[in-house]
Amino acid sequence: MSVWYPEIMYEEVEEGLSSKIPFISVPPEEAMPQFLFIFESRETGEFEPGMDGEELPVSELDLHQYANMAVLKANLNAQDFDTVRAALGLEPLAQAAAKGSRITSRVIENLDAAPAKNSEHEYGSD
Q1: What distance in Å separates the CA atoms of residue 1 and residue 44, rounded to the nearest whole number?
Q2: 3-class secondary structure, 9
Q3: Greatest CA separation found in the chain?
Q4: Who has the most CB within 10 Å: 6, 25, 49, 114?
Q5: Is 74 helix (H, G, I), strand (E, B) or coil?
Q6: pTM of the predicted model, to two decimals?
Q7: What is the rounded average pLDDT of the residues 7-32?
Q8: Are strands 8-9 and 35-49 parallel, antiparallel or unpaired?
Q9: Which has the closest alpha carbon to 44: 56, 35, 28?
Q10: Which DSSP symbol is given to 125?
């Protein structure tokens, strides 16, 4: 049995499926990780000699952990989940959901009010 390691990927075009938000392509037999460990790498401004005597930048690594918010939401009560959200600088879930609903309503209203393009042709026809 092989071990699967999630790989964080990025689309190179703005119009892509993920709109430049990083994604992980999960094989059918695997599950999305519940948490990720990611190293932050920063150059210190110092240099050290490489194998051939060339100057190589020295980097520091700092390990970060990221949790899947869906897992936290499913396993915490609403108050504790909102405490986690607040610690991350997010609004309580009910407030954020209400704002999202209002934005969605405005988008739908704007789409309904927009004139139809190529209305004489059925979608997908020539």
Answers
A1: 40
A2: strand
A3: 70
A4: 6
A5: helix
A6: 0.69
A7: 88
A8: unpaired
A9: 56
A10: -
